[in-house]
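hey so u asked for the seq, here:
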Amino acid sequence: MNIIIFGAPGSGKGTQSDLIVTKYNLTHLSTGDLLRKEIADNTELGKTIYQYISQGQLVPDKMIIDILAKKLDELKTVETDGTILDGFPRTLQQAEALEKLLAQNGTQTDILIDLHVDEQELITRLLKRGETSGRSDDNIETIKKRLDVYHSQTCPVSDYYKKLGKFVEILGMGTIDDIFGRISKAIDAKL
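ran it, structure tokens below
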């Protein structure tokens, strides 16, 4: 099973991904984690990535697709019941590239779970996360830029998966357990 967990920054993708991984024996692929690792390792790629992220911008499609393709190739040897993609795809081009990559591996996306959270709640969550995580991109100026980018560049991905019949919107407000219950119900319906 291949699941995409989707939503604006601060919608709870990482938190819910951890629960999904445990319940359904999936491998968690967070493009944000992959990018932050490149930055932390101070690679040339990481330095380039940092320039985009620190300004609230998306990493260019080709760069992120190449990183993900390499990681998906590495996962071929991992015993798992599937993958959950967190933070990818973020553009229509990335969605099309993902489906092409999966098809080359004889698989496909089964479901895109879109966590819907009110914008003010997103800002509150991200500011709170910034206080505890030390993530430099969780400040009000960058958060607003990231939300603008999300609305202009990432939201069209929803329409792409709606056309494929794989889109499910989940209310991302409430307790973590309530949200996970709604997600589990949607996943179970696809099994």
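The chain has nine helices and five strands. The longest strand covers residues 2-7.
lmk if thats what u needed
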